[in-house]
Write a structure and sequence with these properties.
Elements (H helix, E strand, L loop, with lengths): L3 E9 L6 H9 L6 E2 L12 E2 L14 H5 L3 H17 L10 E6 L5 H14 L8 H5 L3 H10 L14 H14 L5 E8 L4 H9 L28 E9 H6 L6 E10 L12 H13 L8 E4 L6 H15 L1 H6 L1 E3 L2 H4 L6 H15 L1 E2 L22 E2 L4 E8 L3 E8 L3
Length: about 400
């Protein structure tokens, strides 16, 4: 089996539009949640979100004309891919048929769908853009990235709700591990901060209605009451180890395990015993060759919803055993970024890689009143200097989709 390493990373996020500002915001405990600015929220119960700010696609390799032909989620994806490819130096070093592009989205072009639906209803069918369908469909971030970087190998975006980009990276890992490709541009993107998404999630009782940035997204806190909708993109360049070494690429970390399962239980609620999540964590650690002796950092899904956080805590305990679970350092970055949906797993994987490489663990903000049912070490409020070599990033999606990636630093 081939080894699979990371040689490039890119981020568009509520904390900043590059990896450095994203990471600095995390370790400084900044909160990217604020009042919604995209539309009038007077009739809405939810009036906050974690929006991407000051985004200019022309600063990230896109021309104005081509950006206009892309939904915002594709623009975010292309911007993050531009960063990742620039850092990796991969372009031009791999045969097109050996390069893949697995950039995914949980929802796709919902902004285009909403805008063109308004045109249809108010101005008639002749006013709907001929680019409506190819702009809104969920494979277009991957398709555009493949065109830009001449990635003629597999291009298979996946849709697993909040676990989307974790599965995207996991499947890319397998494509390289089993020898089908030498490198894959992979991750996820989401741009769903709009009226229909806010209304839909709010009416499903999924969103926090507290409308105060530091009192709304509360992973593992006794007072948690829903997630805050976020947006952005996270893209990584995965590469076969020998290929990366041969061209002198900087190796940012190694993907060493991948677990994917389904609860097969409910369309939104997790399995009450965390069965699927437990198995996915075990699968990733087993493939990583974990023998229980290494210190472990877990970047949790940690949405701040009542059911997710206590069930995820239980799954971690069941997967690791009570004693090791209590020694693990666990944190959720969703208090800072909101829930970036299909982009969340990619951003959280990048945070996990940076935590291992820098020896600084990002905090769970603002964890002031821990839930007794969430009783692990959640790195509360402030970043912590703590060198750990093995990391796990957990994603759990609507529909019962569970994805877990295990990574190591120090390659």
């Amino acid at each position: 089996m081939n080894r699979v390493v990371v040689t490039g990373m890119g981020v568009i996020s509520p904390l900043g539009n590059d990896v450095a500002s994203f990471w600095q915001g995390l370790i400084e405990g900044k909160c990217g949640i604020g009042p919604l600015t995209r539309f009038d929220t007077g009739a809405y119960k939810v009036r906050i979100a974690a929006e991407v700010r000051d985004f200019d696609p022309t600063r990230h390799g896109l021309e104005v004309a081509e950006a206009r032909r892309m939904d915002l989620y594709t623009q975010y994806a292309m911007a993050a891919a531009h960063q990742a490819m620039a850092q990796s130096g991969l372009e031009g070093t791999v045969a097109p048929e050996r390069l893949g592009a697995n950039i995914s989205s949980g929802i796709g072009g919902i902004e285009t769908f909403f805008r063109e639906s308004e045109k249809l209803l108010s101005r008639g069918p002749s006013r709907v853009s001929p680019l409506c369908i190819p702009t809104m469909i969920g494979n277009m971030a991957a398709g555009n990235a493949a065109i830009r970087y001449k990635a003629g190998g597999s291009c298979v975006p996946v849709v697993t709700a909040c676990a989307t980009s974790t599965h995207s990276v996991g499947e890319a890992y397998r494509q390289i591990r089993h020898g089908y490709l030498d490198a894959v541009i992979t991750g996820g993107s989401e741009a769903a901060v709009n009226p229909i998404a806010i209304a839909g999630f709010a009416n499903a009782m999924a969103l926090s209605e507290k409308n105060e940035p530091l009192a709304s997204s509360l992973p593992f806190d006794r007072n948690r009451a829903g997630f805050v909708l976020g947006e952005g993109a996270a893209v990584l360049v995965l590469e076969e180890y020998g290929h990366a070494r041969a061209r002198g690429a900087e190796i940012l970390g190694e993907i060493v395990g991948y677990g994917t399962t389904c609860d097969a239980y409910h369309i939104t609620a997790p399995h009450p015993e965390g069965d699927g999540a437990t198995r996915a964590i075990r699968m990733a650690l087993e493939e990583a060759g974990d023998d229980g002796s290494e210190s472990l950092y877990i970047n949790a899904h940690g949405t701040g919803t009542p059911l997710n956080d206590k069930t995820e805590t239980l799954a971690i305990k069941r997967a690791l055993g009570e004693a090791r679970a209590r020694k693990a350092a666990v944190s959720s970055i969703k208090g800072a970024t909101g829930h970036m949906l299909g982009a969340a797993g990619g951003a959280e994987l990048i945070a996990t890689l940076l935590a291992l490489s820098t020896g600084v663990l990002p905090p769970t903000i603002p964890l002031l009143d821990p839930d007794p049912e969430c009783d692990l070490d959640y790195v509360p409020r402030k970043a912590r200097k703590d060198a750990r070599r093995l990391g796990v990033s957990v994603s759990l999606g609507f529909g019962g989709h569970n994805g877990v990636l295990a990574v190591r630093s120090g390659i």
